[in-house]
Amino acid sequence: MTFVSELEPTALWRHFDTILTIPRGSKNEDRMRGTVVAIAERAGLKHDVDSTGNVVIRKPATAGHEEAPTTTLQSHLDMVNEKNADHPHDFTTDSIIPQQVGEYLTADGTTLGSDNGIGVATMLAVMEATDLTHGPLEFLFTIDEETGLTGASELDASLVTGRQLINLDSEEEGNLYVGCAGGGESWLTLDLVTVPATRTTVTLAVALKGLKGGHSGCDIHLQRGNAIKLLVRLLWTAYLDTPFLLANVEGGSAHNAIPREAFALVAVERTCKNALLGTLETDLAAVRTEYGSVDPGIELHVDETDTPTALWDRSTSKTVLSLLNALPHGVAAMSYDIPDLVETSINLATVKPDGNHLTVSLSSRSSIDSALESLRRQVRALSVLAGAKVQEDTPYPGWKPNLESRLLDVTKAVHTKEFGREPAIRAIHAGLECGILGKKAPGMDMISFGPIIEFPHSPDERVQIASVGRFYRLLTATLEHLA
Q1: What H or E segment, with its residue span, contains residue 247?
Q2: How many Cα neighbours within 13 Å face the side chain of 388?
């Protein structure tokens, strides 16, 4: 155990300290699920695991409160595995190394996993607690939220009997969330035609680093740079003056993380090398000026490297640069109805060559189904123009706000009593599982809240320590009131 287990409230932080030692990237939740089940069995609580791997645990009501409606608490077991390219960490075996920096808890060079590890730890603390007042409780731990909401989508809904649900996967204190965006992914596959390298070219490894990245839903409005888009912008500008051939373009790590780093291999005639470098430097200065206030750490590294045996031919190189430049990224529309809410956005998430193909993934979000489909059509149209094949998933639904919610009224009143101020009632641009769970369990009354978690899905992820205590206080007080 580390210093984390000594933070307050210790019942919660002790579990999070354990969670830090368990590899739990999306689709690798077996050990985390086993830990949750073991804790339930030690506490003498009944549990079920559905065929997908979701876990439902039931805790009887405190004596005298058996007739209260069942409340379901929900968090997801997985986390986003994101690290800096040069950081020696194996997410399949290594523990997350926590660090306290001022009032925050963060990790050494990786994501911390407070999204949604704090929610999971909170549920485990409530499961074990003997000093809380509450009605009948269900604890729903879903899997694979971060790569497509798979657990919620394939949940055996018959295991969930409660019809009031508190989702613990929000990241702004003082806000009660009552709605979220829907979304879907697109994958573009482009054939790569190659030619042999020649002796007259020099190959340059070009890397764009130092961007902040962040969550493609929660942070998209901050308009930070996308490393893929910016690198390709620099390369396209240089290409127009000094044509070259590509041998690689690669960047991004997850569909819901704004790319922080991107890399390319460029083969240019040796006599044109200096002209290419000059253009890159000139356009880099412009990029730094544009993004200086939101991404001040942008770095471009260009190093001569060994020339590969095969390069992408001229048509392929031009098509790759053109397509990646044309594909959209960022906020597409703001809500007309809810102030400061992003309505529609898209994240150009990853690009990676695989043999003779280049695969590009994009994640689209919107609180309006028609706007989501329109954005996905735009991606399809650009793919047709580039000669790329397109594959799409079935979009997941959004969560329509219900301002007449009893659960909202109760939680709002509890927040006002506990902290002396009314909470803000908001919708979020991220894809909370509530949208899917609401369709799986018709009539489900839902709300979502959480502590202060900043820069999720990036190695800068951090959670404000004191806010976790207040979050736990709000939850337990709400459960008492519901009882």
Answers
A1: strand 245-251
A2: 27
Active-site annotation holder among 78, 82, 146, 261? 78
Q: Where do the DSSP E strands lie in 50-174?
A: 55-59, 71-76, 98-101, 104-107, 137-142, 164-167
What DSSP string runs through 400-468?
Answer: ---TT-HHHHHHHHHHHHHHSSPPEEEEESS--THHHHHHHSTT-EEEE----EESTTSTT-EEEHHHH
Determine which helix (DSSP H) or strand (DSSP E) holds 333, and give its type and residue range. strand 330-334
Nearest to 378 by CA among 343, 349, 344: 344
- CA-based Rg of the chain, rounded to a whole angstrom? 24
What one-character-per-residue DSSP string does 168-236 give?
-----TTEEEEEE-EEEEEEEEEE--EEE--TTEEEEEEEEE----EETTTSGGG-PPPHHHHHHHHHH
**Helix, strand, coil share of the chain (percent; to 5):** 35, 30, 40
3 state SS of 299: strand
3-state secondary structure of 369: helix
Q: Where does residue 285 fall: left (phi above 0), alpha (psi -120 to 50 degrees), or beta otherwise?
A: alpha
369 is catalytic: no
The residue behind tokens 């509450």 is 134
Q: Which residue carries 């925050």 as its tokens?
A: 104
Pick left, alpha or beta for residue 141 (phi over 0 → left; psi -120 to 50 → alpha; otherwise beta).
beta
Would you say how long the chain is, in residues? 483
Give this prediction's pTM. Answer: 0.75
Backbone φ and ψ of 216, nearest 5°: -70, -10
pLDDT value at residue 414 = 98
Tokens representing 192 are: 């790569």
Catalytic site includes residue 78: yes
Q: Determine the Cα–Cα distance for residues 28 and 409; give it in Å rounded to an integer.
A: 37
Q: Choose the catalytic residue: 145, 171, 445, 454.
A: 145
Residue 358 has pLDDT above 90, yes or no: yes
C-beta separation of 77 from 43 below 8 A: no
Burial of 130: CB neighbours in 10 Å, binned 0-12, 13-18, 19+? exposed
pLDDT tens column, 427-457 = 888 878 999 999 899 999 999 999 999 988 8
Give the HSE-up count for residue 138: Cα atoms under 13 Å, Cβ half-sphere: 25
CA distance 288 to 295: 8
Count of Cβ atoms closer than 10 Å to residue 368 Cβ: 16
> How far is it, in rounded angstroms, from Cα 457 to Cα 111?
6
Encode pLDDT of 83-121 as tens digits: 887 888 999 999 999 999 999 999 999 999 999 999 999
